Amino acid sequence: MQRRGALFGVPGGSGSRKMAAGDIGELLVPHMPTIRVPRSGDRVYKNECAFSYDSPNSEGGLYVCMNTFLAFGREHVERHFRKTGQSVYMHLKRHVREKVRGASGGALPKRRNSKMFLDLDTDDDLNSDDYEYEDEAKLVIFPDHYEIALPNIEELPALVTIACDAVLSSKSPYRKQDPDTWENELPVSKYANNLTQLDNGVRIPPSGWKCARCDLRENLWLNLTDGSVLCGKWFFDSSGGNGHALEHYRDTGYPLAVKLGTITPDGADVYSFQEEEAVLDPHLAKHLAHFGIDMLHMHGTENGLQDNDIKPRVSEWEVIQETGTKLKPMYGPGYTGLKNLGNSCYLSSVMQAIFSIPEFQRAYVGNLPRIFDYSPLDPTQDFNTQMTKLGHGLLSGQYSKPPVKSELIEQVMKEEHKPQQNGISPRMFKAFVSKSHPEFSSNRQQDAQEFFLHLVNLVERNRIGSENPSDVFRFLVEERIQCCQTRKVRYTERVDYLMQLPVAMEAATNKDELIAYELTRREAESNRRPLPELVRAKIPFSACLQAFSEPENGSWALFQRAAQTWSGDVLTSRFASFPEYLVVQIKKFTFGLDWVPKKFDVSIDMPDLLDINHLRARGLQPGEEELPDISPPIVIPDDSKDYPVCSVASDIDESSVMQLAEMGFPLEACRKAVYFTGNMGAEVAFNWIVVHMEEPDFAEPLTMPGYGGAASAGASVFGATGLDNQPPEETVAIITSMGFHRNQAIQALRATNSNLERALDWIFSHPEFEEDSDFVIEMENNANANIVSEAKPEGPRVKDGSGMYELFAFISHMGTSTMSGHYVCHIKKEGRWVIYNDHKVCASERPPKDLGYMYFYRRIPS
Predict the structure, then answer these.
(1) Where is the USP domain positioned along the sequence (predicted)?
(2) Would residue 822 show up in a list of annotated catalytic residues for this protein?
(3) Which of 98, 478, 725, 855 is a plausible cystine mate for 584, CB 3.0–4.6 Å?
(4) Exposure pattern of 276-296 as b/e (b: 16+ CB <10 Å)?
(5) Active site residue 49
(6) What is 24-98+128-169's CATH superfamily?
(7) 211 assigned ligand-binding residue
(8) 484 marked as part of a ligand binding site
């Protein structure tokens, strides 16, 4: 309660309404049972409304419920009062005023502002030397809007005083998401004052850095004792690495390292290996000068990247962000930016593209009154509420207004500055959609494509009635598998939400330039000279489309019953339906031979008009013979009690298994890969691993489907099912307790042989199955009679049509891997391209359509 004295120690507040202490007590008595003191674990929202992006900076301020600690703007507090009956709210308001001028005309000297007690961001557009902030708090009792000004410690009941103090001194519920808060808590390293630095003549160049033990050029750390430049770990500070900096510390004991590229006159990222945490080095300038680095002349660039970071890739960063071009800011509905929370640009870019689609606008913003009125008691934990809130924030124009004209500023500043909020901070949205996800809940950079699929999954699971806006992305893929030995075929269909287009590097039209550039680059690196200007591979889009449509060696081997042998297969993919909106991902990210992530830096002439009608699936053709649906041979273990693990050592090529295991894959996964590809070699088995490595049972021991009472590997929830396949009730109860319907739980458990973990994964990966499936109900009714039913479920809903599309948005990535860099989004609105670069929204002059990562096409009506 350290703030209590500071907040309530001054008797009487400006604007407080004087009345007897007994009168205030009498006024609060009926509401005392509803006033709570925040406990450990309670989330106190005092910076942002649950339904809008209003804050204490907004004109109407913010109302914090003294029972639930949820916050509401002036337009939404009445809704919460009507729904819950909670009457007592704390009203928070921050006032911004011009500072009093001294006799010389300048502002009076800066001093600590004791009138600021709210943990809020200051307005970046205002010069703190010219303006001052004053925070105001008061209790408001609904429905009469009776106000009790704070501080009022002498007249308020003790419980109310303690509750108010606790609310005002509480930490932000997003503290773990805010990287800025980490800096304030960094300790000073105990090694900084007496750090030993070797006089070995090492001087660090301004560019061309590379790890001394590998070829990495990102996430590099300078050891402050001996000047070694080495890479960090992949999970530290959002970047990839092989951990050589840590290995060096273990070999030498040299404790401190600074991350190259973060050095500015204000400081840098310093890590102590001995203390195992990020630290402060008060003598950093001296320690850097020892290796020839003048800290005071280092300058950062936009998005937190330093000049030295971007020199090797300056073209990509400049072209995508349209640097050097005078861009006109855009304001109004649909032109609202999203503030970067620290590596949250992947989320911002995807959400800008999503809410440029009319179906999403109608589903959420169009249903705003109904969604808000029927939201749960804690709307911060409701997906549809938060999607609607974000969509309204982006589309309403309420948070994207042009600056006030200069002549009006003079008039406004005479009384009080009323700042216009430009851009919204998606903290609440990010906190909800990323919770329980190990990657998206972190502050590391992420793959925009993976987040897009994650969002589609959330939309599917939280659809509003029968309306599902993600239907516009869904399409069916026909996969044709042809046996290399018998030439027979098998056709299957699967659901997908985006088209993954390979990069046809072999089709580059400037191969001679690329070869010359690579030779020049290597020579410059060896001689420690500046790198030459980047030459980017130019790939025709037609070549990428051709690579997509060509047959490829499949990842499965086919068992031939007649010959009792395995045979390879050839896989061809076609569109069984065309979606209303086609999302195309360029597969720019891959792994090198050393398993280090890398990115194809290419230019692809993506078309504005796209015709893929020739990729329409045709089904079984005359003269084609279908493959029989036969399971591979069953190997019966010597001791049936050891089932389902099979002793197949004599049937598996152990040399191929070891080759894969040496790459770092789990041994059991390697054995399965070799087995299911018919001992066709490590390369074919590797392809199987790449396809199946995300499956939950990837590293589990090899099992033989079809033996004894076990379910067949090809068994589906729609196959023959009897009493023996009735899932255990305790497992069904576990899944239903998580919020899923009983019918859904039974479907998932039957499809996964009652494996709980796999059943949950099945639910998330099969959003197209109806929760009220007639089949499941029928099977439950007939289970006791052991009646086998044939199910004929509806297929997934698709919006098929023409394969003619036009480009309306694309997301671009800058950097060398998905674990680092920056994303921006370009969207075509009202006939012109607009760039969304975090909170900045401007008219685009040269949209870099050839450098995109994800492209959004809409169908052209036929």
Answers:
(1) 336-860
(2) yes
(3) 855
(4) eebbebeebbebbebbebebe
(5) no
(6) Zinc/RING finger domain, C3HC4 (zinc finger) (3.30.40.10)
(7) yes
(8) no
